[in-house]
Amino acid sequence: MEVMAPITVNALNGSSVRLPCTFNSCYKVENKQFSLNWTYQVCDNCTEELFLQFRLKIMNKQLDRFGDRVQFTGNPSKYDVSFTLRDVQLEDEGTYNCYVLNPPDRNRGHGRIQLKVLTEEPPKRDSTVAVIVGASVGGFLAVVILVLVIVKCVRRKKQQRLNTDDQKTEEEGKTDGEGNPDEGTK
C-alpha cells in the first residue's frame, strides 16, 4: 500500500484548508476491515493525538484543540481519506499523520503533512524583473553567437581568397612555392 500526501500545506489564519491524503491498494475497500487514523503532533518528538478515526464509520474524536472544526471530506471507496480543517488557527500548525490499513494489504500506509499557518497572504510574485533579465541575457547571447558566425564567415572567405590567389600564382608562374620557377617548366 502506498499513501500519497503533500509534504507541506500552507493555510491562511482563519481560513479553511483541506489536508489531502490518498492511497493505492490492490484490494477494494471493505468498510468492515478498512481502518484510518488521523493524528496531530505539535512537534516531531511530541506525542501524537488521535482526532479522526474510521472503524466501520467516521468517528470524530473531539479534541479540545480542534473542537468541531474537523470535517472528513474523503471517500475511502475512492481511496481518498482527506479531511478539512475550518477556521485554521496559529495553534493548528504542526504535523498531521494519516495512517491507512486496507486488509488484506499487510502493511499500514502512512502519510505525513506539515501544516504551516500564515498570518497574511504571501505577496504575489512579480516576474517582470525575471523576464527582463532573461530577455537581456538571451539577447546578449544571440548577439555573441551572431558575431561569432560573422567572424567565422569572414575568416572562411579570407581563407578562400588566399587559396584562390595561391592557385593563380602557381598556375601563372608555376613556382615552387617560394617564388622560384619550377624546374619542370624550364
From TrEMBL:
<keyword id="KW-0406">Ion transport</keyword>
<dbReference type="InterPro" id="IPR036179">
    <property type="entry name" value="Ig-like_dom_sf"/>
</dbReference>
<keyword id="KW-0812">Transmembrane</keyword>
<dbReference type="InterPro" id="IPR000920">
    <property type="entry name" value="Myelin_P0-rel"/>
</dbReference>
<keyword id="KW-1015">Disulfide bond</keyword>
<dbReference type="InterPro" id="IPR013783">
    <property type="entry name" value="Ig-like_fold"/>
</dbReference>
<dbReference type="GO" id="GO:0005886">
    <property type="term" value="C:plasma membrane"/>
</dbReference>
<feature type="transmembrane region" description="Helical">
    <location>
        <begin position="129"/>
        <end position="151"/>
    </location>
</feature>
<dbReference type="GO" id="GO:0034220">
    <property type="term" value="P:monoatomic ion transmembrane transport"/>
</dbReference>
<keyword id="KW-0813">Transport</keyword>
<dbReference type="Pfam" id="PF07686">
    <property type="entry name" value="V-set"/>
</dbReference>
<feature type="region of interest" description="Disordered">
    <location>
        <begin position="160"/>
        <end position="186"/>
    </location>
</feature>
<keyword id="KW-0732">Signal</keyword>
<feature type="compositionally biased region" description="Basic and acidic residues">
    <location>
        <begin position="163"/>
        <end position="186"/>
    </location>
</feature>
<dbReference type="InterPro" id="IPR003599">
    <property type="entry name" value="Ig_sub"/>
</dbReference>
<keyword id="KW-0393">Immunoglobulin domain</keyword>
<keyword id="KW-0407">Ion channel</keyword>
<feature type="domain" description="Ig-like">
    <location>
        <begin position="1"/>
        <end position="119"/>
    </location>
</feature>
<protein>
    <submittedName>
        <fullName>Sodium channel subunit beta-2</fullName>
    </submittedName>
</protein>
<dbReference type="InterPro" id="IPR013106">
    <property type="entry name" value="Ig_V-set"/>
</dbReference>
<keyword id="KW-0325">Glycoprotein</keyword>
<keyword id="KW-1133">Transmembrane helix</keyword>
<keyword id="KW-0472">Membrane</keyword>
<dbReference type="InterPro" id="IPR007110">
    <property type="entry name" value="Ig-like_dom"/>
</dbReference>
